[in-house]
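Quick illustration, no need to memorize.
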Amino acid sequence: MILRDEEQADARRGKLLLHCPTMVLRRQDGPAIEVVGGGTIAQHGYHEIQVTLYSHSGFDRDTLLGAVHGRPGQLIPSSCLFSLYAVDEFGREWGSNDLYLNPHFTWGDNRVVIRAFAREISSIGSEMSETQVLTLYSPVHLPIPRNQSTEVKAESADGGRNSLSFDLWQLNEPTFKLWYRNVDEGTQVRCATTEGPLPRGLDTRVDETSWFVFGRLTDWMILEEHADLKSRTTIRAVADHSLTYVNPPLPFWPEGNVEDYDRLYACVLRHVLVAPYERFHPLSTIWRVVLQSGNTTIVDRARALSVAVETVVHSYFREDEKEDGDAARDLAHFAAYLDAYIGSDQMMKRARGIPASLARPSTATALRNLVAKRIISDRQRRSWGAIRNVTAHRIESGVEDAALLNHCNNVCQALIMLIFAALGYEGQYVDHSIRGWPRLRFPRDPNVPDSSYEDLPDEAP
């Protein structure tokens, strides 16, 4: 482990301070510029990592100023970005790339104070480890279920004693295991391989899975990797996600069933693991936008939900977008009727576009078919139509905020049902669009009448 225990605790609180006798800033592109000195690397809360360098080496002031100023109205070019190499007081080497220097330097006689903000800093060390291990920490406190205990050492006057704390959630995948645990104010996840290497990009995939299972964004602030006799620690500046959430699809622990949590987590993780995407899986990107819309206006949230449903339907339910056989025959008869009774060539060209547009695959058709398959309810389908017409065509809805909020709750629940079906999840869930937030099962029981899923009206009472 590169960080000491007290440094780990400071980093989790966003208060880590590293004193570095050696620091070097190098320009990443363009004519070489190098500034050498000493200074500090400090977390300022969870959202900012500041690098401060004090230099007494000689360099041209105009050259340095010219390197940090881009042209107004343009993206910052790579020639304005710097890389950092630093050695702290314990001899640990740290590095970071793509630093943009604060142009307001403090100048003196042959000396300068330079400040920059880093998105992340990393250090590589050597450590004996028989298995590949990845440890992640987020300042977001997730309401995790629990199925395992850990041993806790307690100091007392008559000596130390050990006790058990029921505070772990263990998940078993075919080639690795995961352990979730609430630490300090946040959440820690430990991943260890049981066979072969850990999957590439596992930190991102675990992040994406947590978004859906818990309905919260959880960017990792601290990452520790141990593999091939090497260890790597990365500390990141993360955004404030306190308002980016939706009600989670499963009952809160301890009321929820651990087996349902295990099943849903496995469905999401295995779905996103197989994709060769460098950043986020497309389904995770859709869900992230919905989560972020919780920090905007109700109209923007409605727009995000409307688009999310359309995207999921088009990606996973394309066959349901087509009209059934009876509707296709009716459209064919309609087209034949137009051919027989419209004589004007110009009008005929326009008229033939009507049955063609009606036959085109559509989300509205898919949702009607998915209602028939009992994946979503008809109330949820009607709510999607209500917010889609307003948000897609920028029509003044005249809908009261309370009614629009009801529509958003219905559509958000429909989106969760669609994702359940796409992932193949079967188990318990909470319907947050019905009064009392009842616990139901997915897929819907065919013996349960549709009226059980139609409790809330379309409009606010």
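Confidence is low (pLDDT under 50) at residues 456-461.
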